[in-house]
Amino acid sequence: MKEYRRLSKRERFLIWSWHYESKPSLSFYEISRRLKLSSSTIYDEVNKNRRRPDVSLKKLPYDPEFADYNAARNRILRRKSKYKASSGNLRKVKKLIVEKGWSIPMIAKRGNISISEPTLYCYAEKGFKAFADYTKKKYRRGKVRFIPAAVKESLMMTQRSIDNRPTRIRRRTEFGHWEMDCVDSRKGVKTSVLVLVERVSRFTVTYIIKNKESGELLNALQKFFKKYGHYTKSITTDRGPEFRNGTVIYDIERRGVDVYFAHPYRPEEKGTIERINRDIRKYYPKGTSFAKITETDLASHTKMINEYPREILDWQTPQVRFMRLKNVTEANIRRKYRNAAIQLA
């Protein structure tokens, strides 16, 4: 059995040249002999792979450039035809990608469509138009970690080390423990985004700060505690100078909230917020100036991030999970005050 191979662009030009340009014109049999192909292959190529099959070759001769383009297009269409999808499902997929920024697993699990995750990946690979705006998630490879030399810590940092954080916080068995970090603008711009993420629900809160001085940070934290203070028991952060500021630490702790610091060069100790920062960077890539971003735009994108269905939450959204845990916490507080009132009576 002969091995199947496609005609190349060069071979198509040779067919055209030998059959139409050379004098005398070569027959299909002679062309097939020179190209070491069957004569039926040459005949089918000239008669079927042309612009207008309904018009004779005398009026509209064989065009090698169009034939090569047409053959490539037909190969793509043949591959696509193996995957059938309704136009309604593809419209839903496009809407979720463009308007909500969902990934393929999110669409498959919570997109209310009858297409499996592997099939959606096939659609994206085959170039379906619904996936034109989809960017595949990049997973980072492990790198050799830099191990810094031992540094003598102050007593303030030693007392608040992540090593002293209770096990219930590390295991995420209790609601109300947050992680905090800053996402910076491009070099030379002081404006940043203060990010706080609740560890159990992955609920995200963001604020634009003009700089990392204590005054700006305290104003942003005041807004945070005014809205979420009842649901905050601890904050874990890195050892950036803006967070090691004694004024900031004491302002947080006077509200009854514990502060814990991760070890230097150990971002995995606050991996939740590092993962959320990647979602934020999807909308504001490195090199963005947050001085040009409005609070409204940031709130809109934060809302979209909180509406991502996440596998770690059994494909619930952080918004839904946070509200459920918040309602449980409020019910427990009301029960506590009610029991105290009964005892006093």
Characterise this structure.
There is one protein chain. By secondary structure, the protein is an alpha/beta fold. It folds into 3 domains: 9-80, no CATH class; 87-131, no CATH class; 155-329, 2-Layer Sandwich (Nucleotidyltransferase, domain 5), CATH 3.30.420.10. It has helices at 9-21, 28-35, 39-48, 64-80, 87-100, 104-110, 117-126, 155-159, 167-170, 214-228, 246-253, 271-283, 295-306, 318-344, and strands spanning 177-184, 192-198, 204-209, 234-237, 258-261. A 5-stranded mixed β-sheet has the order 3-2-1-4-5, sandwiched between helices. The mean pLDDT is 87. One of its GO terms (cellular component) is cytosol. InterPro entries: Integrase_cat-core, RNaseH-like_sf, RNaseH_sf, Transposase-Integrase, Transposase_IS30-like. This is IS30 family transposase.
Mean pLDDT: 87
CATH class of the largest domain: Alpha Beta
Report the sheet-strand fraction. Answer: 5-15%
Specify the overall morphology.
elongated
Helix content: 40-55%
What CATH calls the topology of the largest domain is Nucleotidyltransferase, domain 5
Radius of gyration: 32 Å
Spatial ordering of strands, largest sheet: 3-2-1-4-5
Whole-number count of domains = 3
Strand segment count: 5
In CATH, the architecture of the largest domain is 2-Layer Sandwich
What distance separates the N and C termini? 97 Å
Model regions low in confidence, pLDDT < 50 over at least 5 residues: none
Largest sheet: 5 strands, mixed
Supply the number of helical segments: 14
- SS-based class: alpha/beta
